[in-house]
Amino acid sequence: xxxxxxxxxxxxxxxxxxxxxxxxxxxxxxxxxxxxxxxxxxxxxxxxxxxxxxxxxxxxxxxxxxxxxxxxxxxxxxxxxxxxxxxxxxxxxxxxxxxxxxxxxxxxxxxxxxxxxxxxxxxxxxxxxxxxxxxxxxxxxxxxxxxxxxxxxxxxxxxxxxxxxxxxxxxxxxxxxxxxxxxxxxxxxxxxxxxxxxxxxxxxxxxxxxxxxxxxxxxxxxxxxxxxxxxxxxxxxxxxxxxxxxxxxxxxxxxxxxxxxxxxxxxxxxxxxxxxxxxxxxxxxxxxxxxxxxxxxxxxxxxxxxxxxxxxxxxxxxxxxxxxxxxxxxxxxxxxxxxxxxxxxxxxxxxxxxxxxxxxxxxxxxxxxxxxxxxxxxxxxxxxxxxxxxxxxxxxxxxxxxxx
Length: 404
Hints:
It is a single chain. This protein is an alpha/beta fold. 44% of the residues lie in helices and 16% in strands. It is built from 15 helices and 14 strands. The strands form three sheets. Strands 4-10-9-8-7-5-6 form a seven-stranded mixed sheet, with helices on both faces. Helix 2 (62-75) runs antiparallel to helix 12 (281-296) and helix 7 runs parallel beside helix 8. The longest helix is centred in the last third of the chain and has 19 residues, at 299-317. It is globular and about 60 Å long.
């Protein structure tokens, strides 16, 4: 078999479908987000980034950078090992304490990314709890899906955010087997939000654990940034809250929070935790500074909400269709993979605007979009320029507009 030819044929299929991914080679400017230098074909030019998950610009915040610099000078570069073998740095312990406090839980456990924390925790729980059934929202993230698959536990899919369907699926389960209801708070592609309280009602009725992924909500919602579960006053009803330090907190890492025994169980049995090198101390220190800042500062969250609302209003004025949702994510719907990629390329090359096309398999075919994430450091002028640029290309691609 000619392996390389087989690989190339599959890649060409992706390219012909408009689903081949091309990485933008970006160089972020310290203190000047959302501007970045884009390297392309041996040349470099400045672009405005509109699709970053650094939702609040905390990756550039002076408190975060100072904390990381100080930790680097104090501790050096790497952690030096796994958490079990010399790799637990004092900054890890302080950060875990801060995260447990953020969610009102007894304990927290750090991982190297949000993907790893989901994959590891769900696979460990599903594999170790005897005859466990995991009830997974149909739009859960790939990290959750892979963790459930790896656990080899019985899986039941319930219709997205459909509490009645969840109850039907729970009612089918043996009342004596362990059950985990796994779902997200903010779904990152459509920007819709789970009815957490109603889900808790049903899970409690059937004796199920609740596993909540808050990665697109921590730092952004709630009085102290604890996510949708804090905003809605239901964090105490969730068995396990999972989050990330690489999005609104602007650094790196994932985590879980829950009871002391739950976190200790995963710490003791999860291969994805036991056998991987711990986060660098500087990353933990920076994340700690970010978490503590956003526990006390509302300015980033309130400014971001204002800019999200302004962008939506401007899009409405020029008839550009975007999915309505109550979150910070603005999906501009193109519904054609080739045109989605072309508009993204033209925005980058002709207008200095970087927004990545979102195509299959990240979203279903026919729902291709530009996923825009306004931040508190995008100005009103930035928004005006973005909307006008999209509107020009919308006409060139003969895409339908929304009539008010």
